[in-house]
Amino acid sequence: MRNSRGILIVFEGTDGTGKSTQLALLADYLQSRNYPVVTTREPTTGPYGQKIRDLYVKRDTCSPSEELELFLADRKEHVDTLINPSLAEGKIVLCDRYFLSTVAYQGALGFDVEELLSRNSFATPPDIALLFYIPLETALQRITVGRGDMLNDFEKSENLSKVAAIFDSLSENYIKRINAEGSIQQVHLTVLSLVLPLIPDSLKLQA
Ligand code: TYD
Q1: Is the pLDDT of residue 165 over 70?
Q2: Which domains does the chain have, with CATH numbers?
């Protein structure tokens, strides 16, 4: 029995899959139906998250171990100060990236996947992890053309293909894979079909 504990829904996948757009659409949908929603992301906007963002343009100034420690410290703070308290208050927490991103991105640096999962055992497991996938070329095109952006150091294609391969290999039972090549609306409907069955009416705010 879950009682009034909230629900943790995480959005995962390589860069350029549209997961952040889908997170925002789901948040709007749930809020319009009177559910208490908290949206959040990793890296966070806290001090460790800021250090991580500084690495986007100079990733080679930091060793793989130091980088891993930063993501873990950022997550620890996030879980303790926002995720767990929000779940305890019965909220639906939508989180853009979580520990499967560490498994895939730091795994692509050579860390062992099982070890990375165990280093993240402090983090509350998600009720569902929506894992968005699209062909790598489409993802790269979405980042550079669609977003009008340069690839940051985490998004280089050799790196992203390793990241995608690790995401593909994961088999945790809370993972649901979503083909993100469809239209925004089609993908949104898929998200709803996976998420809504998990959300009890009892989480709704009183009118
Ligand atoms: P991203 O979701 O692109 O954040 P933002 O939109 O705020 O810039 O994440 C930034 C990068 O960080 C992304 O390329 C993946 C990487 N990352 C890791 O390498 N490990 C992690 O644990 C997380 C959460 C992200």
Answers
A1: yes
A2: 7-198 (3.40.50.300)
Tell me if the pTM is above 0.90.
Answer: yes
Residue partners of 117: CB distance under 8 A and separation at least 6: 99, 103
Ligand 1 centroid to 42 CA: how many Å?
6
Instruction: Answer yes or no: is pLDDT of 148 > 80.
Output: no
Query: Which ligand 1 atom is the nearest neighbour of the CA of 52?
Result: 12
Closest-CA residue to 196 (of 7, 5, 2, 3): 7
Q: What angle do CA 128, 125, 133 make, to 5 degrees?
A: 45
Ligand 1 pocket test, pick from 19, 154, 162 with the greatest ligand atom count within 8 Å of Cβ, gives 154
Residue identifier of the C-alpha nearest atom 11 of ligand 1: 154
